[in-house]
Amino acid sequence: MTAEGKTASFQLDGATVPFEPGQTVIQAALAAGHYIPHLCYHPEFKPHGSCRVCTVEVDGRTVASCTLQAQDGMEVLSQSDRLRKEHQTLVQMLFVEGNHFCPSCEQSGNCRLQAVAYDLDIMSAELDHLFPNRPVDASHPEILLEFNRCILCELCVRASAEVDGKNVFALSGRGITKHLIVNAESGRLADTDIAVTDKAMEVCPVGVILRKGVGFRVPIGERRFDRQPISAQAREDAPRRPTTGNEDST
Amino acid sequence: MGTHAELEAIVDRYSGESTALLQILREAQEIEGWLPPATLTCLARLLEMPRARVEGVAGFYSFLHIERAGRYRVLFSDNITDRMAGNSELLDRFCNSLWLERGKTSEDGLALVDTTSCTGMCDQGPAMLVNGWAIPQLTPARVDEVAELIRSHTPVEDWPAALFQIEDNIHRSDMLLDASLEPGAAIRAAATSGPLATLEAIQCSNLRGRGGAGFATGLKWQSCRNATGDMHYVVCNADEGEPGTFKDRVLLTRYADLVFEGMTVCAFVIGARKGFLYLRGEYRHLLAPLQEVLARRRSDGLLGNDICGQPGFEFDIDIHLGAGAYICGEESALIESLEGRRGIPRNRPPYPVTHGYLQQPTTVNNVETFCAAALIALRGGEWYAGIGTGKSTGTKVLSVSGDCVRPGIYEYPFGVTVRQVLEDCGAQRTQAVQISGPSGTCIDATEFERRIAFEDLPTAGAFMVFDESRDIFEVASNFVHFFAHESCGFCTPCRVGTTLLRNVIDKLHKGKGSQHDLNQIFKLSRLLQSASHCGLGHTACNPLLDTIKRFRPAYERRLESLEFEPAFDLDGALERARAMTGRDDAGAHLRTDE
Amino acid sequence: MNDAAQPKVRVATTSLAGCFGCHMSFLDIDERLFELLERIEFDRSPFTDIKHCGPCDVGLIEGGICNADNVHVLREFRKNCKILVAVGACAVNGGLPAQRNHIDLGECLEEVYVTEISLAKGCIPNDPELPLPLDKVHPLHEVVKIDYFLPGCPPTADAIWKFLTDLLAGRTPHLGHGLIHYD
Fold first, then answer.
1. For a FRET experiment, which of A132, B193, B508, C138 has its CA 20 to 30 Å from that of B592?
2. What is the model's pTM?
3. A190 vs chain B: nearest CA distance in angstroms?
4. pLDDT higher than threshold 60 for residue B416
């Protein structure tokens, strides 16, 4: 509410978006059903602004909408040709940085990276692939870590630390060598205290942290983003109170 | 690994504080020259921190090794000025002499030889770091000497002192470098006039931050003073990582009292009791002398309790040594590093003046800014405002290097022309000057009348000169590699973009580029400028854009065609198969001109 | 568009480091093939068995670049086709063959021809007739300029149909939700 008592709001691509004090632009937009592409943002966690896919334009400045505090009367642009091209290139960068071989990935159809790319009409990564060497960690009896697909969003790091209280994951390295590590001297997931019921198990936007033995259960055509494009599911990502781990994991 | 007792002693020395993690890791590494997995586990237990976090921090900093790195870690400074002075040949000579492969620890665990970003010895390069200790003025003879010392397993502390002799090379001084301040004079002046009047003097002086961005110092101090918090902090940013910059090295060598004086004045104004000097790891050699200065100041009553006899004025300074991360020069990344974390720039707002070190109000200023502040406290804001130009008051200390007769330190009132500096340093047939390092601006001979000032050419101090014999493409290429190496990796555009730019520039370097590649440079640059998280990403493409604009033929002559060339060397990609099959027939090659 | 006097659009197709799955999917457009053949004619293609490409309007390439021969064929297509399209996951990003990219080629050849029981009787074949493999498998756009991309493993018949009808009608091909997919 503003001082005059009316609901505070900003303009997003010409639409009026109301917001509650403390909300960032993307939080308010998603709560109101307006989609802004995003990957490292998660409705239950404090935004941290690393993927930059939610970049918007405010007063000629480009900023990540997930960390931008909403202000009354603000004019935000998320859909200009220029921004769309930037969103595309950012997503393409994530594709060439890792090894994303969708046909063999059990998260295909439920993967946010893929869904965001579909929604941006990305037909190819276009950039030159880096083809990094990232061995998988299959040491854990119930969980597989497929690092080739990691987009370094830190959601598992945040979930494990903030919700599970375990710190199973962290980031090491720097720049292009930055990578996900696990909390064990051996470097093996099997030697950590991760559990399949952990929150960290359910936040990966791509297909890095996988429960063994349950992949490919949902047939093609019925997976989350087969049904509707991600842009039509904005409200699903409206900010919400954090829940603890995988209550419905079966 | 180091024994449990050794590690425990280190952790105890830092009172088991997790904020000291970087310092603890640095000292733990001294034991074996690297940080074995068991050492990280042990430190994590002692500090009651998640092991993965300890490893994450260790893996972030260039000077910390989580893989076996050898008893001697030899890093050749690889700034363009080192290149111009022949560091590549010296590195090869050194590797050959020790039978080592660059970047690989020798089988016997004796040594690791590699390159590192600019070590701040551009006025006396080429330079190297051996186990963190700087050795400047490398020549074939000196390199051979170092190799021999390593071959004979001589401990670095027993090496001849002459190897580590570093010159100050001050060639022009003005009011700052000429100031001979009696220690405590500025503090006493501030104490006499009171914090508000001192703040007013800083504001009236129009002093602007000397780190390059030029934020008004008075406004920063005022905001910090007015911010509420349990503790206020003063931080001196001596993480002088911008390639080509070395003036803080000299200020800290010769004018340490002035720096600490300025920090103490700041503490007095904002109400801080604790200060940090964040010293870049490359200046390890300055740690002990600086600590001696601090000790002397404590015993002289210039630090500690009731400073200068002012009841209740309590302030002290700790030195925090960095470990090879350019990004920590960004003030919020510096604070993260001070807190014992990976040096990742924070989201702003909130700014450090309200939420800095440990989320408390914190003033972060450059070394030179604190020096100027001390002088202002002593001589008044109006005196200072009368020097320089309207928008850029006072003087600027420049670090001049590259193609000139007298590289070194030059202090000028703001407003000096580039031409004047070139004349004074004895530069001839100058083709280009890189102002303020890779993140700054590259100007050509048509622009030498431009002035060093915030309103024209703002600078953090670097002034690298390139004469007509230089290939400007090599300059840009060196800087592009620098940014790719120093990107913290937090945000997508900078992490991936700086690497893609590096790959494009390498392709051009081999003469394999096309117009398509130049277009890629522009496309990636636009994205970096627009979408990056911090200044590193925003400025990483400056050297490319500046030099393509001013020295386009340096790029064009490296193009193979105007259309499109493969992303990789096709014939080179068959090399492995040729070796495996022993074939060398025509079909075993791919020509580029088909 | 149905003007009979209009010359047919000449199309060439090939499969490089691919599995012919994209060609099979092409054939899956079923009876729409007749409609398509009113508009196009094939040059070099597995459908025609023409061995070399002549001047064409459109080249459809399935598969990535894994050896020297792939490079020669790709260059032939680029030289002859006004519009070159990367069809399917392998052409677009290397796909399945690129899964060998993290393995050293030498080790790969050793494993296939030396360590494992094979027809080559324990040695790596060196017949000049055989194309040499590249150290890594690359998508097409890293070797020549590609004008359009049609992802999918394979792209569905409907996606191929939509893509081609857009292209033939002079529209920028657009797949949209349901047709665009990478798996």
1. A132
2. 0.96
3. 14
4. yes
